Amino acid sequence: MAFDPSSLAALSARYPAAPARLRHRLTDHPLFAIERLTALARALPQTSVEYNSGDLPIGQDPEKTPMNGLTPEETVRRIAENKSWIVLKNIEQDKDYAALLESCLADVAPIAKTATGDMHKREGFIFVSSPSSVTPFHMDPEHNILLQIKGAKNFTLFPNDSETIVSDDAHEAFHRAGGHRNLPYKKEYESLAETIDLAPGDALYVPVKTPHWVKVGPEVSISLSVTWRSKVSDAEAHLRRANGWLRAQGRTPPRPGASPLRDRAVIFASRLAARLNRA
Q: What is the pTM of this model?
């Protein structure tokens, strides 16, 4: 097993809506050696690699994110000195990493199935970060477990149901074509923050669209994210897309959850429209 069985009980009690701490057994896995990660960075298609300077503010404008002037391979090889972070996306394109991803998700799948149905769109991401790098304030569309492999991270989360932090407009924009994960950050959000310190062997379940930002400790950090979608995450996305379309027509849809029957009808209509478009 990739995860300590006793920690899976904590996940079971809190999934899918609340963060949960876990323990994992991958800290010495050879797939996380810098040499192997350098080879992965070289082999992945350009669309599966994102990298830039790690010397960023919490509320980074995605249009103004500075690059580091290196190739992905050089970024990983020289990560201790180049003040950068890089994410290797969809690592399941490599058969060795695909097997690792599936072994992690196999531990979690029974818990997920009970609460949110079968997993789909299973994906893996590896983050390699220079000391003190910052991943700016953002949210992600997936259920996510972050496994800390090397170094330390301070993972700061915020409530995912706070309209003060992420408005309905912002949620809807996130799901539009070209929508970006980065969010504007305000100092007054700090009173709502929870910071979780992650060391090698620690893992953290992050619920869908939980706003967060991350600061790396004084050493190089390597982390693995294993992610999946569910009928619950899909329904939220369908509802937000539909509400965004209605808002663009000059209407003001109610907040999700204010009218559950209406939400279910809108989700059904959005799913049907998506199927018709695919056909």
A: 0.94
CA 268 to chain centre: 26
Span 212-264, pLDDT tens digits: 999 999 999 999 999 999 999 999 999 999 999 999 999 999 999 999 999 99
Got the DSSP string for the chain? Answer: --B-HHHHHHHHHHTTTS-EEEEBS-TT-GGGSHHHHHHHHHHS-GGGEEEEES---TT--GGGPPP-SS-HHHHHHTTTTS-EEEEEE-GGGSHHHHHHHHHHHHHHHHHHHHHH-S-EEEEEEEEEE-TT-EEEEE--SSEEEEEEEES-EEEEE--TT-TTTS-HHHHHHHTSTT--SB----GGGGGG-EEEEE-TTEEEEE-TT--EEEEE-SS-EEEEEEEEE-HHHHHHHHHHHHHHHHHHTT--PPPTTSSHHHHHHHHHHHHHHHHHHH-
Enumerate the β-bridge partners of residue 22: 203
128 near 76, Cβ under 8 Å?
yes
Q: Which of 71, 246, 39, 210 minimizes the C-alpha distance to 138?
A: 210
What are the b/e assignments for 138-170, b being 16+ CB within 10 Å? bbbbbbbbbbbbbbbbebbbbebeeeebbebeb
Q: Please write the tens of the pLDDT for every residue from 177-204.
A: 888 899 999 999 999 999 999 999 999 9
- Strands of the sheet containing 194-198, edge to edge, are 134-138, 212-216, 153-157, 194-198
Query: Residue 206 contacts by C-beta under 8 Å, 6 or more apart in sequence?
Result: 19, 140, 143, 144, 145, 146, 155, 157, 212
- The rounded distance, in Å, linking the Cα atoms of 252 and 20 is 35
